[in-house]
TrEMBL record:
It holds the Pfam family TUDOR. Residues 1-13 have a biased composition (Polar residues). Keywords: Coiled coil. Residues 114-240 form the Tudor domain. This is Tudor domain-containing protein. The keyword Coiled coil applies. Residues 513-540 form a coiled coil. The keyword Cell inner membrane does not apply. InterPro entries: SNase_OB-fold_sf (IPR035437), Tudor (IPR002999), Tudor_domain_containing (IPR050621). Residues 1-25 are annotated as: Disordered.
Length: 575
């Protein structure tokens, strides 16, 4: 594999490597991914004059650090680059491991049907957590102290910094981090992924059972042979004889995971080892001492109905993604890492699709709830979109009728058998907000004297009746109302996005003759008489309908005389 052309990259990028675990419990990918020995030949090929006694083969193959005049590098006699021996200041020989892709997972000491006191060092969910046996803590602490003391004090750590050309899948190395006290802590790791662009790695901490992402290469050091050969004491475990609920599609939900981690957090624990899977995970019964009680975590999750009982033999078969190209099982936590990466990748793709959909949605014209249409330089019609109807707010009508108050409009509508619609920020927040905003477009917009946030809407037919009744004569207004009425009937959504032609032909009032003025006076007197009669009648009176028809005809006659023919023909046909 040409490492210059392939990178492990971020978790959302495609991967080209699997991490295997042999049948004996050791991860081994030397046959899957190998780097040619010539990768070392491109390193620095000049040496100090004081090192001319070294063989030319050494110069060609293994000069990877800045050697002082007192440093000497030795290679094993068979010529293989499995290790490099570095001598510093005539003191100690350092044998570095450059080829190992696995650590020693010696589990021969573990006996089945035996319980062990332990501490839980990491936990992802009930099928992936790591423990260290109490009996081995002393040995582990000594090893941790030794490796930290060695890399902090014994050598110049910069000379052991891992070079780019040596990075490959499962490469064994040592990585440092800083604890809460800002002290440098060293841990054995394996490289899972490498991003060439950021020069950073995702690494797995073999002694902790956890991983970390985007670790700068500056924090990686070559591991020595003696530290690489030290067996891994951490045990990867899963709760025996239970599985996720069927309804969760075999996935541990966040709620179950949180319950699991809460009950085991900072509690003394014991494990009873039941069996071991092909990938090295131990099936265990987990017991903790929590809040003064002994709890079997397996039974606890079953009791809460957060898991289902199952025979482990049914779940012991490895899935296809749990086996590498050589047929070896992949370590369970490394497999967990890549499965989590695939989940993140799917989430990333889903987010991209959602972002594209949102971008397309933003390109579409936003749904309009209010349309403001100029009538004259001073007057405007404000249409409101209420469900499937086109309506007008009371303040728009009041502005046309020179400040007619809200209560008068409401009384007129009720007397003429119309039913106003009242909306509020609680019932129709978007429409109310748009209507309040539209008030700014009206000069000296009328305000409600009731100091309420409710807005009254009137139908187009009701508005036409009001305008005729109060002798409103601007013909273009009736044309615009007719257009809105047609859009309402045909459910024409384009009406809300179209811009009305400001050059619409406007009709002017006729110059009235003396006879026409006299006739108008007579009609207005008759109209007033009809209105007074209607106010005295009850809604159930049989004479009320003929009087209303007569009143409408009288109003139409007045408009026919004052305006050109055909201006209110649409209104006349509505009777």
């Amino acid at each position: 594999i040409n490492m210059a052309q392939h990178s492990f990259g971020s978790r959302s990028q495609p991967r080209y490597v699997h991490h295997g675990l042999s049948s004996t419990g050791k991860r081994d990918l030397q046959n899957v991914v190998s780097c040619p020995s010539q990768s070392y030949a491109q390193r620095r090929t000049q040496t100090n004059n004081n090192e001319t006694s070294l063989r030319d083969a050494v110069v060609d193959q293994i000069l990877f650090c800045q050697n002082s005049s007192k440093n000497a590098i030795q290679i094993c006699e068979n010529g293989e680059q499995s290790s490099i021996t570095l001598k510093l200041d005539h003191s100690e020989l350092i044998e570095l491991d450059l080829t190992s892709s696995s650590y020693n997972y010696n589990t021969s000491r573990i006996k089945f049907s035996t319980d062990y006191a332990c501490i839980i060092t990491s936990a992802r969910h009930p099928h992936a957590f790591t423990v260290n046996l109490i009996d081995e803590l002393s040995a582990y602490d000594k090893f941790a102290a030794k490796i930290n003391d060695y890399y902090n004090k014994s050598i110049d750590g910069l000379r052991l910094k891992v070079q780019k050309e040596d990075i490959r899948p499962n490469f064994c190395c040592v990585t440092y981090d800083k604890d809460k006290m800002d002290d440098v802590v060293w841990n054995r790791t394996q490289i899972l992924e490498y991003d060439v662009e950021t020069d950073s790695c995702n690494v797995y901490y073999v002694d902790l059972g956890s991983w970390d992402e985007y670790i700068p290469r500056e924090r990686l050091r070559y591991i020595t042979k003696c530290f690489q050969r030290e067996p891994v004491r951490a045990l990867t475990c899963r709760l025996a004889r239970l599985q996720p609920l069927t309804k969760t599609n075999g996935i541990w939900t966040d709620q179950v995971t949180k319950t699991f981690t809460d009950v085991i957090n900072n509690c003394p624990a014991r494990i009873e080892i039941v069996d071991c899977s092909q990938n090295g995970a131990f099936y265990v019964n987990l017991f903790v001492f929590n809040s003064g009680q002994h709890v079997c975590v397996n039974d606890f999750l079953l009791h809460l109905k957060m898991a289902e009982a199952v025979e482990d033999s049914l779940s012991r078969e490895l899935q296809d993604d749990g086996i590498d190209e050589n047929g070896n099982a992949i370590h369970p936590l490394i497999l967990e890492f890549f499965r989590a990466g695939e989940t993140e990748k799917e989430k990333f793709k889903s987010k991209q699709l959602n972002d594209l959909a949102e971008a397309d949605e933003k390109k579409k014209p936003q749904e309009q709830y209010v349309k403001i249409t100029p009538v004259t330089p001073y007057d405007k019609l404000i249409f409101a979109r209420y469900n499937t109807w086109v309506m007008l707010p009371w303040f728009s009508i009041s502005a046309l009728l020179k400040g007619l108050d809200e209560d008068t409009l409401k009384t007129f509508a009720i007397m003429n058998n119309f039913h106003p619609t009242r909306i509020s920020p609680l019932t129709d927040p978007i429409l109310c907000a748009n209507l309040v905003k539209s008030m700014a477009s009206i000069d000296q917009c009328p305000r409600s004297k009731h100091r309420t946030s409710e807005i009254t809407l009137y139908s187009i037919d009701c508005v036409k009746r009001m305008l005729r009744y109060y002798n409103y004569s601007e013909a273009i207004t009736f044309e615009l109302l007719d257009q809105a009425r047609m859009a309402e009937q045909t459910n024409d959504k384009q009406f809300w996005y179209s811009i009305d032609n400001k050059k619409s032909k406007r009709r002017k009032e006729k110059t009235l003759s003396a006879a026409e003025k006299n006739e108008i006076d007579i009609l207005k007197t008759y109209k007033n008489d009809l209105e007074e009669q209607l106010q005295t009648l009850d809604e159930n009176d049989t004479d009320i309908d003929p009087l209303r028809v007569d009143l409408n005809e009288t109003i139409d006659k007045i408009h026919r005389i004052t305006c050109y023919d055909g201006i209110i023909s649409g209104a006349t046909n509505q009777k």
